[in-house]
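In the previous chapter we treated chains in isolation. Here, by contrast, the input contains four separate entities that must be folded as one system, with a combined length of 1564 residues.
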Amino acid sequence: MTNWPRMNLAAGPVEVPERTRRDLSKPVLYHYDPAFKEEFAHTSDLLKQVFRTNYDVVIMQGEAILGLEAAAASLIQPGDKVLNLVSGVFGKWFEFFIDKFGGETIELAVGYDDAIDPEDVRKALNANPGVKYLSVVHSETPSGTHNPVREIGNIAREFGVLTMVDTVSGLGSELLSPEEWGLDVAIAGPQKCLGGTPGLSLMSISPAAWEAMEKHANPLRGSFLSILDWKDAWLENNRFPYTPSVSEMYALESTLTQTLEEGVERVAWRHQTIAKACREGVKALGLELWPVREEIAAGCVTAVKMPDGLTDEQIRGTMRHRYGVMISPGYGDLNGKLFRLGHMGMAAHPTMLASQLAILERSLKDIGYPVQMGAGVGAAMDAIEGWDDAA
Amino acid sequence: MTNWPRMNLAAGPVEVPERTRRDLSKPVLYHYDPAFKEEFAHTSDLLKQVFRTNYDVVIMQGEAILGLEAAAASLIQPGDKVLNLVSGVFGKWFEFFIDKFGGETIELAVGYDDAIDPEDVRKALNANPGVKYLSVVHSETPSGTHNPVREIGNIAREFGVLTMVDTVSGLGSELLSPEEWGLDVAIAGPQKCLGGTPGLSLMSISPAAWEAMEKHANPLRGSFLSILDWKDAWLENNRFPYTPSVSEMYALESTLTQTLEEGVERVAWRHQTIAKACREGVKALGLELWPVREEIAAGCVTAVKMPDGLTDEQIRGTMRHRYGVMISPGYGDLNGKLFRLGHMGMAAHPTMLASQLAILERSLKDIGYPVQMGAGVGAAMDAIEGWDDAA
Amino acid sequence: MTNWPRMNLAAGPVEVPERTRRDLSKPVLYHYDPAFKEEFAHTSDLLKQVFRTNYDVVIMQGEAILGLEAAAASLIQPGDKVLNLVSGVFGKWFEFFIDKFGGETIELAVGYDDAIDPEDVRKALNANPGVKYLSVVHSETPSGTHNPVREIGNIAREFGVLTMVDTVSGLGSELLSPEEWGLDVAIAGPQKCLGGTPGLSLMSISPAAWEAMEKHANPLRGSFLSILDWKDAWLENNRFPYTPSVSEMYALESTLTQTLEEGVERVAWRHQTIAKACREGVKALGLELWPVREEIAAGCVTAVKMPDGLTDEQIRGTMRHRYGVMISPGYGDLNGKLFRLGHMGMAAHPTMLASQLAILERSLKDIGYPVQMGAGVGAAMDAIEGWDDAA
Amino acid sequence: MTNWPRMNLAAGPVEVPERTRRDLSKPVLYHYDPAFKEEFAHTSDLLKQVFRTNYDVVIMQGEAILGLEAAAASLIQPGDKVLNLVSGVFGKWFEFFIDKFGGETIELAVGYDDAIDPEDVRKALNANPGVKYLSVVHSETPSGTHNPVREIGNIAREFGVLTMVDTVSGLGSELLSPEEWGLDVAIAGPQKCLGGTPGLSLMSISPAAWEAMEKHANPLRGSFLSILDWKDAWLENNRFPYTPSVSEMYALESTLTQTLEEGVERVAWRHQTIAKACREGVKALGLELWPVREEIAAGCVTAVKMPDGLTDEQIRGTMRHRYGVMISPGYGDLNGKLFRLGHMGMAAHPTMLASQLAILERSLKDIGYPVQMGAGVGAAMDAIEGWDDAA
């Protein structure tokens, strides 16, 4: 049997605090038990606070890909023009959903190590009148980059274009706000920067998005993919469209509570600070960051170019099997071209960054790659200013 | 804040053993961690043993309604004739899926307190040449009844008709076998007789069902609803179509392990024995069973007619709020007409049946309904013969 | 391997709520971590509230027998006269401690199915001038009886006699108060009516008791048995005399918090109500209570005379092995003469009492003892008036 | 409220694996439940394997100081000559016990940064005929040193002297064997190198030690301090002298199981390897080790001289409060003179050593102490050769 890792420092699902997992393990309630309904309502309130929104929130009962597909399925009608922004694997994938539900994709793409320029969005919208929706990935986890979603969202609003925003690994790494940022449907995941368990889609829905779903020629209802089912059943009638994942909801309540106890501002600052320190550590080891510019590097994960002559199995396999530290490979088209150092949720902390980089150094040495032992950890720790867990 | 119940003796999700929940709370692994992939594969093997099948099994990452919709979405093509057997709320609901995916529904229905006669199925298939699929609910949880799925499945096979079988609350209450029973797509849930946590669909797929999905004019791929995605990704390439619910998989592994440790035969016997005892208890209290004949009463839950003059809130509310025992109301059209005493998973045990009936008696007394205190528990305990936890 | 019980309804240690055990399992802190010291201090404050005292409290790090021996060892000097009240096995045992530390025992004894009459205490104190200490067991768990400790304590105070009171299974079953009841050293356990884990001694110490310990010719210090070590180290200097049981302290904090959330009054009422109901159930089955009068029956456990012709193994063995319900045998000299139905902590609830009595009935039937099935549960449930978990 | 630490890297109690704590939280059994007795017996067997002994083992139900006092109390008679070896705070403390129980102490002492030379033991025994017992601390946790107990034990055996050995933090850091090392009463703790929870004394007793206890003029029985009670009750009659700490026993079973799964040899190697690496890290930072020679440095903890001009609060306070890493101060007389980096149990791993040293470096920088960032971690990781968690 494979040994278990000591630390899950991958690109998500990530380490989940024990407190969350103790809450996850609470006795399972019947979903119509009044105590569970109360808990579900409370958790929705907490989610609003973490999203910093007054929009309705919906918690769909499947991993975030469900929320993404649901958004496309609920909004897009045959013939709708959708401007799809592509700066990575996940952005590209969304085109499949647009096609599937009959939309017409207009693509604005950059390299998978780059980010979208908001001005190009403006140009594209000017050049393509009649665009109804814009889809964008906030944090491209596979590339370790992030897009300027705030600027993009506000440009979309100018054009009356509704936005579908994949902020699965973005929520928690920046201080977003659906209203101010112009996000109509925002889809996040608990298992990334919030440090929760996978299995749920966290969604914020603007009134305009609700209107579009309801005015759809064939509104999507009576389906696992339906967002409207949650509006009809839960939001308006305090019932569930089907049995929710009771235990996952306990974990989500715990995750959101902890996020708010710490403060969303501090959570975002913590991710940015550790991401910056991680990049300093990587550079000090003579390795290259994958993103073309540091300003577009993500707060959730640091993507590192695979050093010449080394394989994914050598680096990641050594770290994982010998020392118990799990990091992530390149995903999809990027496999073999990079590896990814996750620092989300509780992993966004100096202690775990130190472990991660120290084991990276030790593993590089094991496989014969020249490395100055301690250089990465030293540079990273040096870059962490103003940390204070007790504050 | 609402007080938590002491015992969840509802119609599912049900009480989950602590052992399962301790396993649920294990550290969250990255889904591509080798230890997790090993665990996922092992869990699939365990599921085969619990299903008593050599067919492929698929574990979809959402509550069983996902598996049911996925089956319909993956198999039914516009114009396909589907014989839908209806003996309750869930059977009736399936017609919605048939319609949604363009099928033509041929309904064979009985009262919601009755069960399908296999001979009527034969007649219907004779009367309706060209039927491609048959859909049936094994255990109609809302009615507390079960259908003779084995006989029905074998008749369908005679006619070359593929079956879609909702055995969500059936698996564990009877000794089923997809091959022998003629089940092409069987969908079960962990949160019923297996006593696990909700959030997954447990599916067994026959070769003929795979073939039908692949020969579909527009095979369903690239969707949360796709069963083929699991075949392409996991079964054939040891990859995941998307991030699985890591913690739920731990719980499922634990649930299945415990089921096999006890033995599926004993688990089924235990449910039947407790269901029988529960019915004796109900009758001894002068209450009426909902099913028209005891032979069709379900193994998972006992449905009881609402006594004249009493309301759901009186009975269930008193049991729940004063004494902490949660049972289930009538569902959908049956609301107010019956209440349901669940005895699934770890609740299928004399200790919990005794609590349930004693609190029912005490609550009936509290609300002024004439009841001979102890009569129900006494009759129920009397009916339990041959129990031996140590065996 | 032996099957695990479903329910621990014994005489203690008893079932511990999951919430407590989740808290028990928190990460282990270094005992001088400031977070642990804070938790220890907070737990001491909670204990004061549960004891309803302003006296100092001490939490010794071993099961209550440690606290009992420590009290004797710390107070008694060679030649000290100690009036030892004996109404059961535990009361008798204390004489051993008196002897060990050089005291002179004056015994006031009744049958092990009876309780001490306070007037006899007055007579004994009048008859024996110079008595320095009085030792008494509040709740004689082995006999299922309780002594009128309040009256006894106040008589002792009249005579200037210090009291050592074993309230191990008493705290939580009655509304005691060291000041008002005249208890100088009271020793309780978390694992009885408070429903916590075993491994700690909960002690309340009067100023007079502290003075006696310090004026001892050879004050007991530098020992695991020393109470003064806790005064010197913890109470006065915020240090530990040795490493405390960190996890047990977490559990105690949780136990006490839950006790206070429910309210000590309600906890005491709950024990008395269930004890009364249990006695009604036992009598309705034609069995005999062990105590000579019901007024002296304990709130924590109901002792039942062994029916003629039956053995402990038959009754308890059947209940435990076949049905998973653990109850307690007679202890020491009482072994074989009685069995004990525990109802402490979370077991003091109608649901668990129903299970216990139903399984007792079913087991009696299994072994051929004539019993009217349901009579015990019915009478017990009937006797429970005014229960309301939601209140 | 004080923030909780992220990592407990102190001198014990140390971080306890979650698996152990999940086992700790199992339902609490009545101590005479057959399942608990089976578990207790099984745990005793596991302890024998971890001690690598065929001697009897006793598990006393209190922290190791209980076992140490119990050994002295059970063995020493007034007038017995005891050679007490002193190389630190704990060794010195034992003299108090010798005095308390009437023994005559002959002290062989070295500086608290040094270790006992076995030849000096031989000389002392030659010079002091009639010595009956020898007491020694294997691993002096406060000093971060260890004594050559094997050599010392064998010399004692030559002289017919019985040994009392405090190996509280020694067991697990070296491959000891009571028979081969000449240990008559060895006392260990679960909360040190085994990485378990505090609250128990793990003892191995030689036949000669049993004989001495039984031939004691006043054999110690009927006390929390009695070892013979465990012999009479548990070893010979399968009963408990009093209620054991049920949950702590679960944790111990889990701890010992994990130790044996890993292999005691690997556990010892792991501690020595990490201790060596830690020392390299400390030296690379320009700090000084406390022990006079590296060969006597302990495997469980690394003691570091307090740098001139720095205070304990500066170093440890910064590490703990800002970064959540708890390490230990100097204890007793050594307070302020040194600080201690713990690496016991699961903390004896490269990931946690890296965190510890990185946070030490960062904290030194925070308080203005000159340090080359990364130097300590680099040197430590460099020193770890042959690590393989997957082996």
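Chain B has a mean pLDDT of 97. The longest helix of chain B spans residues 264-284. Compare these points with the single-chain example from earlier in the chapter.
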